[in-house]
Structures are given as C-alpha cells and as structure tokens.
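Key result, reporting period 2: structure in, sequence out.
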C-alpha cells in the first residue's frame, strides 16, 4: 500500500490524525491519551515522543496488520516507522479511565469521513494530575498547567475529582490553580 504522508516531519497531532483515520477505516476504534494529548492541546509547547492509544474493543480487528499497512512494525510494545524516528505508537491497556473514573467520554474530532477520539482538555488535565498525585512527578503537574492555560477546561469537574483523590488530590488542585493564576 502506497502511503503519502510526511513521517519525517510530522508532529503528534498530524500523526494522530493520520494513524487514527487509518485505524478507523479498518474498524479499529481508539482513543488518544497521554502526553501526545498534552502536545496537541498545548500547541507543541510540550513534545511527547510517542502516541498512546487505548483500544475501544479488543476483538474483531487485526491491529498489527492495520499498522503494517502504513509502514509501522511492532518492536516490543511499540510500533515504529523507519521514517518517523521522533515518534512511535503504543497501544496501552484499557479500559479508558482516569484513576477510578472509567466513565470517560472522549472528545470527537472529524478527520475526513472518520471520527477520531481524544481525551477532552478537562480529562487531559485530570489524567496528568492523576500521575502527579500518584507518582509525585512534577512534570505531570507542569503538563496539566500547560493544558489548563491553553484550553477551556471545567475547573469544577477538576476540583471535584481532585478532592475525591484525598489530601494529595486537594493539594494538587491548589497547586494547579496557583500555577495557572486562578
């Protein structure tokens, strides 16, 4: 299959749209999660280096064959492309969730005739805060700040979720507000 795509110069959003539309055309439903979502919502202020997808259904499709059609070869957990050394693709374990919340409704974006799915800006912030709260890694808080400053988010949803995460969650929300000037 001949593919006309500039793998060597694409960013996270371009690769997401290309891979997501291809997978959708093959009946493989996925949701983009993780750092690539931060890269997209921060207009490139953050660069992730990979695209993490959660598959919506784990049956009835051949993911590896679909990825091979566009030149991606499986290497351990990752799918890599010889012309796209700066980004790789990974399919992470589902279900789609943020902490204990598995009632996530992804944002849908039209690409050609396909609907692509990505965490909403609010859920992206919650996802990054979950990693900050549970792994105590400050870079996740910084990523949450980038998204919260660049996108419209629901502060009430984020606050409610953070408080449900206990004292560390409540403290993370206060850090987020302070760093965003709220």
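The corresponding designed sequence is given below.
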């Amino acid at each position: 299959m001949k593919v006309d795509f500039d793998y060597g110069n694409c960013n996270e959003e371009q690769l997401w749209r290309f891979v997501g539309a291809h997978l959708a055309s093959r009946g493989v439903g996925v949701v983009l999660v993780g750092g690539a979502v931060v890269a997209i919502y921060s207009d490139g202020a953050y660069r992730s280096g990979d695209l993490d997808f959660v598959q919506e259904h784990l049956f009835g499709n051949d993911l590896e064959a679909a990825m091979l059609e566009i030149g991606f070869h499986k290497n351990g957990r990752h799918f890599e492309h010889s012309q796209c050394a700066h980004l790789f693709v990974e399919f992470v374990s589902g279900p789609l969730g943020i902490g204990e919340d598995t009632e996530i409704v992804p944002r849908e974006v039209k690409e050609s005739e396909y609907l692509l799915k990505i965490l909403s800006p609010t859920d992206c912030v919650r996802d990054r805060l979950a990693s900050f709260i549970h792994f105590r890694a400050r870079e996740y808080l910084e990523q949450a700040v980038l998204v919260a400053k660049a996108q419209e988010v629901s502060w009430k949803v984020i606050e409610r979720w953070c408080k449900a995460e206990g004292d560390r969650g409540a403290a993370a929300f206060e850090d987020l507000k302070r760093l965003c000037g709220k």
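The mean pLDDT is 94. The helical segments are 12-25, 35-41, 63-69, 121-135, 138-150, 155-164, 167-180. This case is discussed further under Risks and Mitigation.
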